[in-house]
Specification:
The protein is mainly β and 276 residues long. The protein contains three helices and 18 strands. A five-stranded antiparallel beta sheet has the order 3-2-1-4-5, with no helix packed on it. Strands 8-7-6-9-10 form a five-stranded antiparallel beta sheet, with no helix packed on it. The chain is elongated and about 75 Å long. It starts with 6 loop residues before the first strand and ends with a strand.
């Protein structure tokens, strides 16, 4: 089966004037236009291509790598807006269309928007939507407590920052657990800190409990080395000062300091931390 909006590995069937015809095991065929044909190839070679509809609404294969594919979320730039909707740059010749009905708020040329890419069942076109929450489902969770997960920063709220978890669930990082600058579209790792009633997911950007000691201690050690062997904060410094210097909570900082001190890697003085 040749799948629109995805990378497909297909067999080179024949070389023609407009390009190479590729096929799958079900006798489906698609054209790879000349501009994408590799310099060296042989019939029956397998080639990985991306499939979508070109400007003439024809199925076409390309070797370009899009910034987003079907089922994914990504931060994309709006190139143009007309009476039907917005056109987004996704790294392809044909821009990705986002109709007005799929915009959480009206897009403007030059703006950047977090969108989901899906296949329209009626037109077979790939379409973008900035109403990302409707493509997330927490009714049945595929994650467990303390799992490490992939995150995409979605949008801020009064409680903190909403995040997309593993491309399928919605989670929240509370304000008091954010110790670095986060921007919409950022991709990072996190830990499932808590699953509340209604399958609401709390996320931590730092490993929890004993899991947090070694990685955080290493981060702090690297930071001390980067500052020529000295940091002008101690476990008695204000939480704001620790966050500014080390980008971690005072609790995590004290655990990291304790771990490094026990290993005799640092010495503690009234004016700060010294590398031994």
């Amino acid at each position: 089966m040749i799948e629109i909006g995805c990378f497909n590995t297909l067999k080179i069937l024949r070389d023609t004037e407009p390009g190479l015809f590729l096929g799958d095991d079900e006798d489906n065929e698609v054209l790879l236009p000349n501009r994408y044909v590799p310099d060296k190839f042989q019939l029956d070679d397998m080639i990985e291509v991306f499939i979508y509809l070109d400007n003439d609404e024809r199925l076409v294969a390309v070797t370009d790598k899009p910034y987003i594919k079907k089922g994914d979320f990504a931060l994309l730039r709006c190139n143009a807006v007309n009476e039907y909707g917005a056109f987004l740059d996704w790294g392809m010749v044909k821009e990705l269309f986002c109709p007005f009905k799929e915009q959480s708020f009206k897009m403007k040329k030059g703006g950047w928007y977090l969108v989901h890419c899906y296949l329209d069942d009626i037109t077979d076109r790939l379409v973008a939507s900035s109403k990302t929450n409707r493509f997330l489902d927490n009714s049945e969770l595929s994650i467990e407590l303390y799992d490490e997960v992939d995150l995409i920063v979605s949008h801020p709220s009064e409680l903190g920052m909403n995040v997309i978890i593993n491309n399928c669930h919605l989670g929240l990082i509370f304000k008091d657990a954010i110790f670095k600058d986060l921007s919409i579209g950022d991709k990072l790792k996190g830990i499932v800190k808590k699953i509340r009633p209604g399958n609401k997911i709390d996320i931590s950007l730092q490993k929890l409990g004993y899991r947090n000691i070694e990685p955080t201690a290493k981060e702090l050690l690297d930071l001390i080395r980067d500052h020529n062997g000295f940091l002008n904060v101690t476990d008695k410094s204000a939480p704001e000062a620790i966050m500014s210097v080390a980008q971690m909570s005072k609790k995590s900082f004290k655990k990291a300091v304790g771990a490094l001190y026990k290993k005799r890697l640092i010495s503690l003085k009234s004016d700060g931390i010294y590398l031994k």
